[in-house]
Amino acid sequence: MKANQIPFRIKSLEDYQRSFEYSQEDPEGFWSSIAQAYHWKKPWEKTLEWDFQSPSVKWFINGQLNITENCLDRHIPTQGDQIALIWEPNDPQESTKQYTYRQLLSEVNKMANVLKDQGIRKGDRVCIYLPMIPELAFATLACARIGAIHSVVFAGFSSNAVADRINDAQCAYVITSDGLNRGAKQIPVKSVVDEALALCPCVQKVLVVNRLNWPIHMQNDRDYWYHERLNHVNDHCEATTMDSEDDMFILYTSGSTGKPKGVVHTCGGYMVYAGYTFANVFQYNPGDIFWCTADIGWVTGHSYILYGPLLQGATTVMFEGIPTYPDAGRFWQVIDKHNVNIFYTAPTAIRSLMASGVDHVLSYNLHSLKLLGSVGEPINEEAWHWYHTHVGKGKCPIVDTYWQTETGGIMISGMGGIHPQRPSYAGFPIPGIQLMLVDAEGKEIHGNGVEGNLCVKFPWPSILRTTYGDHERCRINYFATYNNLYFTGDGARREEDGMFRLLGRVDDVINVSGHRFGTAEIEDAINHCTKVIESAVVGYPHDIKGQGIYAYVILEHDENANDQTRDEIIESVVDVIGKIAKPDKIQFVRGLPKTRSGKIMRRILRKVAEGETNALGDTTTLLDPTVVDEIIATRL
Ligand code: PRX
To answer: Residue 120: which pLDDT band, with cuts at 50, 70 and 90?
Structure first.
């Protein structure tokens, strides 16, 4: 087969197989064929240079582009009046906002001009700490328009967590809002930023979007209202020419060690992969309304609320609210209201809505739905069936999409409606993805019906390029465990028919409601509480969240082992990270199971947290085996 016979849009199993086979034989030919579908200001000279030892990966070398021209300008002649973005507010009584491609381009250009006016230039880092309001989309795209590197931080992180991320990337600029709506609550976002900025000397200016009309503190010569700055700009802004390998954005994510790291994606490869996976996994057809319920503060929102859909000229829905406000029927009401055709959410949301009873779903007709998606964690069979039966009415295929912040886009999934599906199986590799299962020594596990650690042996266009400011950390985290392989940190099983099932993390990362935390990161936050001497955190199965956070804590004085101390520990975690990382269970212990060399045996702590106290394995090598009996006796 020739490269010019590779379809961009996979429409049948045969298309998938042809694409997949070609991509494995000639990945460079494959991706250069796919990349032709985009607008390049200057074509690339060489498709790929790579080495996983450094690591160094460069795609579409010397090609020039601007992703926003591909997301916006390119669509104006043919679909300028088509709706690009539908924004649904938190409160169903408030009006929806809609932006055509032409209007969205105008808004992005205005925001881009505000940023330029304030001195932001190509390569500058901009921290965006905003709720899910249209200005979040404008701000993110505006950065990409002028070549500023966006670092979107989820607006649920605490001031300390924001400060860490701002300082790590040395952001000179922050975009935020007065406050935010979250269900029945309103949260003071600007004051979180003010607290953070006390720790961030690098920040010079703050742009504030008025969401709630709150009388907030504005610091002279630092803080500016967005609506006031708009009076000084027009809506024309030339898209800055970017090199394929220029940094496009930073997104912080947790690993098994240390503080969260800033995953860096670059312009050309990210664009090619986000658009390709969106079109094919979701089998998007012109006119379809696509809704991804993630927050733009996570990678799912970057790739599948903004960039992927806009690259394909889709209509994308952005939702400010939460699934349970004003009641547990809110998702289904929004689907009917906007005639959503493709709905993409997380298993944790499905499980929490399941728990509220099926009546909420049955009150809506959901006729518009054609395809459902799941992301962020394994979807258990019960949730899969509920989703399929009650939301999809038995007729909508489900794509269970496996990927990571580091991969930029979906890596394993069925192509909606084309591949066979099986509950709790993510499915097949995306064309261009060369997966490998390895054993603990890094030896390849061949054949089917096997399990191992999931690696990728060849680069794909949107693989992370580095971790911001610390390339060695990137190498050690992803490329040093196994020689010449990218290691995901996940275990997986490949079935007889080649289908993949994800088995969860094999490192010290836990996935709580689809959010990633390093156990060390939470322990560090717990240890900030002055009464705590030491702690150890593990994940345990949780009905709604997928995994819950179980903390074993040693206190300075036994008499402090009470609810008040528990509250103080939780406060400490909320303070250092945010509410999303609150421990579900805190067990006070007098010692932790440690090896003679002082290493905590988390395997034992995990088993106790899971309630499998009879399967602890050999404990005789512990420094003090009796601590295990005590831990079992006081288990929560
Ligand atoms: O463990 C895998 C799990 O989420 C991790 C990536 O988390 P994050 O970078 O925050 O990105 C989440 C959204 C893409 C993976 O290492 N994970 C993600 N999707 C799935 C999954 N586990 C099983 N099935 C999935 N579909």
So the answer is: very high
pLDDT in tens, 570-614: 999 999 999 999 999 999 999 999 988 888 888 899 999 999 988
403 Cβ below 6 A of ligand 1: yes
Q: Which of 273, 293, 508, 516 to mutate to test the pocket of ligand 1 (most atoms within 8 A of CB)?
A: 516
Relative to beta strand 486-494, strand 466-467 is: unpaired
Lookup: tokens for 101: 């491609």
CB neighbours of residue 247 within 10 Å: 21
Q: Which domains does the chain have, with CATH numbers?
A: 68-240 (3.40.50.12780), 511-633 (3.30.300.30)
Q: List pLDDT tens digits, range 20-57.
A: 999 999 999 999 999 999 999 999 999 999 999 999 99
Plot region of 327 (φ>0 → left; ψ -120 to 50 → alpha; else → beta) = beta
Q: Decide whether any atom of ligand 1 lies within 6 Å of the 299 Cβ.
A: yes
The DSSP string of 55-91 is TEEEEEET-EE-HHHHHTGGGHHHHTTSEEEEEE-SS
453 lines ligand 1 (CB under 6 A): no
- Pocket probe for ligand 1: among 404, 428, 501, the residue whose CB has the most ligand atoms within 8 Å is 404
Residue 323 has pLDDT above 90, yes or no: yes
Tell me if 426 CB under 6 Å of ligand 1: yes
Tell how far the Cα of 347 is from the centroid of ligand 1, in angstroms: 11
Is residue 274 within 6 Å of ligand 1 at its C-beta? no
pLDDT over 70 (residue 1): no
**Cis-peptide into 625, omega within 30 deg:** no
At residue 88, does pLDDT exceed 80? yes
Whether 549 has a pLDDT exceeding 80, the answer reads yes
Q: Which two tokens stand for residue 78?
A: 């043919």
Give the CA distances from residue 589 to residues 117, 558, 633, in Å, rounded to whole numbers and listed in that order: 57, 9, 10
Ligand 1 neighbour 295 (Cβ under 6 A): no
488 CB within 6 A, ligand 1: yes
Q: Quickly state the pLDDT bin for 619 (edges 50, 70, 90).
A: confident
CA distance linking residue 199 with residue 212, whole number of Å: 26
Residue 544 has pLDDT above 70, yes or no: yes
Enter the tokens of residue 248.
């496009």
Half-sphere exposure of 31 (CA within 13 A, CB side): 27
Q: If you average pLDDT over every residue of the chain, what do you get?
A: 96
Read off the pLDDT of residues 182-217 as tens digits, 9 standing for 90 and up: 999 999 999 999 999 999 999 999 999 999 999 999
Index of the ligand 1 atom closest to the CA of residue 504: 1
Ligand 1 proximity of 73 Cβ (cutoff 6 Å): no
402 C-beta closer than 6 A to ligand 1:
yes
In this structure, which long-range contacts are made by residues 388-391, counting pairs with CB atoms below 8 Å and at least 24 apart in sequence? 388/423, 390/358, 390/361, 390/362, 391/332, 391/343, 391/350, 391/361, 391/366
166 closest CA partner among 147, 149, 181, 188: 149
